[in-house]
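User: My instructor asked us to take a sequence, write out its structure as tokens, and then describe one feature of it. I'm not sure where to start. Here is the sequence I was given:
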Amino acid sequence: MAEEITDDVIRSKAISQIAVEAAKRNDDYSEFLNRAIKAALDIKKPEESTKALMSLAFEFLNLGKSEEALKIAGYIRELPGRAKVEAEVALSLAKEGKISEAMGIINGIMDEDVKTWAMSRLASQL
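Assistant: Let's start with the prediction itself. The structure tokens for your sequence are:
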């Protein structure tokens, strides 16, 4: 039903919300997540597509699903947006004590400003 919505941004939000709600209930959300990513990528305006993907990634990160958030970040075409999600995932992992995994993600961030910011935040958490 959500796929029938004609406005690409509203369709993306609806499908993303379904994926998030399924994840909250610990249902099998993988198909919903894939649909949400596709819907966000189908948005015609690149900046709106980036916003939709970032929002979805942060929703999953807030649910403690850092692997999914990182997967979503990989689809973000705009470097600053992808870097911000990657940085937040790394900092979340560091809070869980997964320092080497967090460092690996931070080292892979292509945006130097975001990388520096994330390293600084990580250092202040230690």
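For the description part of your assignment, you could build on this observation: The first helix runs from residue 8 to 24. Try explaining in your own words what that tells you about the chain.
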